[in-house]
Amino acid sequence: MYKLKTIFRRAKTSVREAHAGNIKYFIIDTETKNGKIDWNKVYNAAGREAARLIIPESVTPPKESHVKAYDPSKFIRYIFFNTIFSILKNMQMSPDNIVIGLYDPLAKSADVSPAFLKYCRHLKVVTDFPDKYYKYSEKAMAEYGAGIIISDTCYSFESCNVIIAPFGMAGCSYYPHNALVFDIDGICGYSVTNECIKLPKIYTRELPPRVSEAVFAAALYERARVKQIGNVIPKFMVINGRKMSLYDILANVPQPLVKSNIKIIS
């Protein structure tokens, strides 16, 4: 009888309280049955938060479960920008010698663009929606005395020594071969990935195994409004799967470009 009870015992799901600093959150513990998670129980335990759960890496809920993993992409992009600002701030080069190119086809980063003019002589933006940039160009002119040069072709990046692609370089066929490139996809340039973001231990003491600190950081920043987490600057960035410290990136900043070769991205 004992063996039968063991075989037919239902997988248990429970909820417990945990803390990250002074922030309270809840952990759903669930057992697997025949190697599978009962996602209906997870959904019921999560309630209205089921569409934004922080789930251990390598675990993917099925679409029909209505359980979704928390999307940290907006936060990652925010840290991506902050890391670039930190690098630009620490460059041993006059802003007069820096020309930045921002590749933003859908104009989703228009509001961030004026801040780059603090660190460069010119900011060149390539976008398919120039109208969304006009008011920010006026703001830049008022604050920094320089407008934003807007174009719809990547050929305008020819004189840039820094290229920034917050949504990836796909669709951009040309850029200077020796420019310092920051590419959120980490293919053509340096990126911030989940592994780059590490939290102070006060936030991770009760964090379950295999949970990404980056995803947890995103939830703390966006949902719990722990705004100081937005000031976290990674110690390294990633390019083609390789880690590179910010110090090493700074050591390889290209000098001002006079004539630049064009690289075609295949």
Describe this structure in words.
With 266 residues, the chain is of the alpha/beta class. It folds into two domains: 1-69 and 204-229, no CATH class; 73-193 and 235-264, Rossmann fold. It contains seven helices and 13 strands. The strands form five sheets. Strands 7-6-5-8-10 form a five-stranded parallel sheet. A two-stranded antiparallel ribbon has the order 1-2. Strands 3-4 form a two-stranded antiparallel sheet. A hairpin with a 2-residue loop joins strand 3 and strand 4. The protein is elongated. The model is unreliable at 1-9 and 257-266 (pLDDT under 50).
Low-confidence stretches: 1-9, 257-266
**Helix content bin:** 10-25%
Strand order of the largest sheet: 7-6-5-8-10
How large is the share of residues in beta strands? 15-25%
**What class do helices, strands and sheet pairing give?**
alpha/beta
Instruction: Note the overall shape.
Output: elongated
Query: What's the order of the H and E elements?
Result: HEEEEHHEEHEEEEHHEEHE
CATH class value of the largest domain = Alpha Beta
What is the tally of beta strands? 13
SS summary, helix count: 7
SSE layout:
Layout: H1 2-8, E1 13-20, E2 23-30, E3 32-33, E4 36-37, H2 39-46, H3 73-89, E5 99-103, E6 122-126, H4 131-144, E7 148-151, E8 162-165, E9 174-176, E10 180-183, H5 201-204, H6 213-222, E11 236-239, E12 242-245, H7 246-251, E13 262-264
Parallel strand pairs: 5-6, 5-8, 6-7, 8-10
Antiparallel strand pairs: 1-2, 3-4, 9-13, 11-12
